[in-house]
Amino acid sequence: MSRTPDSKSEATRQRILNAASARLRTHGIEQTGLRELMEQAGLTRGGFYFHFPNKDALVTEAITQAAGETADAYVSLADEAPAGRQLQALIEYYLSPAHRDHPATGCLVASLASETGRAGKKQRTAFSSAIGVTLQRIAPLLPGESPGQRTLNAGLLLSSMSGVLNVARALPDARQSEALLAAAREFYIRSFCGE
């Protein structure tokens, strides 16, 4: 007899997904153990398997959730910016010390791209779909003569900014890190926003 999910069960499942979404962006796939994840969610490890068949299934869903959260955040930033400044607002946020210092709520690409490239097919497929969602949501903000060109430009911008963000996170000197972020902000705003 199979169990039907109730609202409490769904809420618990969502707690696990929320914790996984944050933990994956902070610690990566390999360093996200089930014990620590379930502790972060305030649950016991034994309850995990009631909600997910294995870690791979959780990672796949958490990647999708994290991408949606990221895309929603970018669209909100753009919506709140003055007309003509939407892309600039996105660049300024992405390459900010606040984004650098809070990977748990930050960009999935910056957190998982290199690791996902070495992951299994399901995780790579989920990551690829997640990037597609993000690019689809931000492409209208980018210059380009066609939707395809705007999507390509969005991919170029996101990929290169994620690299800068990773280096800024790795630098031990905060002043050096902030100088890199500031220089990158100026470069991308000039290159993509025409300023």
Automatic annotation (TrEMBL):
Entry annotated with the keyword DNA repair: no
Record's protein name: TetR family transcriptional regulator
Pfam family, one: TetR_N
InterPro entries referenced in this protein's UniProt entry, alphabetically: Homeodomain-like_sf, HTH_TetR, Tet_transcr_reg_TetR-rel_C_sf
Gene Ontology MF term list: DNA binding
Entry keyword Transcription: yes
Membrane-spanning intervals of the chain: none
This protein's UniProt keywords: DNA-binding, Transcription, Transcription regulation
Every HTH tetR-type domain range: 10-70
DNA-binding region boundaries: 33-52
Signal peptide location: none
Source organism of this protein record: Massilia eburnea
